[in-house]
Amino acid sequence: MSFLTDPFSFEFVQRAFWGGSLVAILCGIAGTWVIVRGMAFLGEALAHGMLPGVALATVLGVPVLLGAAASAVVMSLGIGALQRRGRLSYDTSIGLLFVGMLALGVIVISHAGSFATDATAILFGDILAIGVDDLVVLTVAVALGVVTAVVAHRSLVALAVDERVARVLGLRPRLAQTALVGLVTLAVVASYQAVGSLLVVGLLVAPAVAARPWTHRIPTTMALAAVIGVVAVFVGLVVSWHAATAAGATIAATAIAAAGVSGALRSVLSPLRRRVVSAVPVPV
Fold it and tell me: Residue 117 has what pLDDT?
């Protein structure tokens, strides 16, 4: 039992767990919609699109979350502008901005003369450095994410079914899409310090992928994804402590492993369930 509890005798590990858990809850909410709408590429692009803002904030001594948020917002607005005015497809717009923002971020970091150190922190995060102020920010972010998901739920469901149906019902699909992009942006920015821009998509997508086969309702999927994410944070911290590995990367790898285990269990149990159902006599 001490194997599990020893790491949490230190306050910085406790803060890492609570911060990672808040991130997992927010990612469970946003990640469910990412899976439902097939928007994993957007999450990845936003994660890497934060790089210029984070790099500038690091160089100028400004809070990195502000730089990450500003850069992600610019990325989101740029995708919409390219779609409307450039008449490009959604994935093409994301791809262009993704590469452009990533290149700009690397240029800024390399020009600052501390590429190796800064790039490591930016790409892989530092969940063990989460402080009390960060926990407050994450709590506010989770509250905003929950409110957004609740208020926009009906519109997002209609948008997921058919955009034309949403428009006929007066649910303003464009506004719903904006709310969804904002929710994903919020999750990506909030997750930045925990796992970094390179691994954030793992925590955003993997718990929702693990939860999806076991639920039929979106709110239930969100709740289960959040639980899986919290467990991944706990297991990842314990493993990283004893194995002396990077905490953020270990958490992301644990979440991805959970998705793999979930898929394997589903593939094994589904045939068994069908056999049990087929063996039950039908009343006449």
Answer: 47
* DSSP structure string for 166-218: HHHTT--HHHHHHHHHHHHHHHHHHHHHHHHHHHHHHHHHHHHHHHGGG-SSH
CA neighbor of 58 nearest in space, from 112, 103, 106 = 112
Backbone phi and psi for residue 216, each to the nearest 5 degrees, phi listed first: -120, -10
Q: Report whether 209 contacts 38 (CB < 8 A).
A: no
- Of 137, 147, 144, 146, the residue nearest 66 (C-alpha): 137
Residue ranges for the chain with pLDDT beneath 50: 116-117, 282, 284
pLDDT at 208: 93
Tokens 């791809």: give the residue.
95
Angle between helices 51-60 and 90-112 (to 10 degrees): 20
User: Taking CA 224 as the corner, what is the angle to CA 222 and CA 212, rounded to the nearest 5 degrees?
Assistant: 75
Backbone angles phi, psi at 142, to 5 degrees: -65, -40
Give residue 203's identity as a one-letter amino acid code.
L
Q: What is the pLDDT of residue 22?
A: 93
265-269: list long-range contacts, CB under 8 Å, 24+ apart: 266/213, 266/214
Predicted pLDDT at 284 = 47
Q: Residue 171 to residues 32, 167, 199: CA-CA distances in angstroms? A: 20, 6, 34
Specify burial of residue 170 (Cβ count, 10 A radius: 0-12, 13-18, 19+).
exposed
The amino acid occupying position 137 is V
The Cα diameter of the chain in Å comes to 79
Report how far residue 70's alpha carbon sits from residue 67's, in angstroms, rounded to the nearest whole number.
Answer: 5
Q: What is the pTM of this model?
A: 0.85
**CA-closest candidate to residue 48, choices 102, 95, 128, 118:** 102
Q: How far is CA 231 from CA 157, 190, 203, 252, 257, in A?
A: 28, 18, 12, 11, 12
